[in-house]
Please model this.
Amino acid sequence: MTTNVAIVGSGVMGLTAAHQLALRGASVTIYDRRREVGRGCSWWAGGMLALWCEMESAEPLIGDLGLESLAYWREHFPNVINKGSLVVAPPRDTPDLKRFAARTSHFDIIDGPRIAALEPDLAGRFETGLFFKEEAHLDPRQALSFLKERLQKDFGVTFKMDANVRPEALDASYVLDCRGYEARDVLSDLRGVKGEMLIVRSTEISLARPIRLLHPRIPVYIVPRDDHHFMVGATMIESSDQSRISARSMVELLNATYALHPSFGEAEIIETGTDVRPAFPDNLPRIRRSGNILRLNGLYRHGYLGAPALARRAAEIVMDGKTFPEVER
Model:
């Protein structure tokens, strides 16, 4: 007998959950109130698969989920870029780089010439850095489009967009609530953390991998994308305000980017974006059960790094009756 599963939400959490379920033989329908797939936090993400960098401030569970998710993306998404990530700081902020190193692992400490060998356009700009060679990154928008196409063509997953439905109203064997911050109507301890980002375009500089700059006011990451585009992010503001980027945040993001390389001063601003990340008080994800409803939420800033692993657990709960105490809280 086929297990019918309805998923509410078409961000990276909903799409990877659909994929994990479809791989196990479930019949899946995805609902979303938006007209296009993934037009929430997943659309604005950096796409860094940087689990060892994230351990600077995250709990060990994020590292476990991240390691599994990194393997998932490498297996299922053909456009993962496996060139590692680089963390640098201006000479005056070398103590911040040392603190970052003390809290992380799986990196090489590299000097200026090695930085220049990895990123020629940063030659002479930084004396030391941390190279996390096992990390990777992807373009989130490409990943969302790829997953949608594969789910439709290979597994017959049905998408019902522009459908403002509540999980409780759906008739299915199981319902997965993957609405992110919208699920605060039933998850009273869910809070919003606002993130703001920019996409800029510059033909004056090339980068091969994500660069994290430990800046005194706002640590920033710059992620290269196609056609000389760079994603610059991202603020973390304890707020559920989903309005446009503030002038202060834009100035600080641009200043930090200019500190990485002055060529960014001539970059064209292509796009700005804001959204609200869903987070529980401890910033760790959860699977909450309520009858036949599973609520997958709380990915915070670790969407692409955590969603596939959380989705696999949810799929095994649905299809195999397994339990996962580390996330079922």
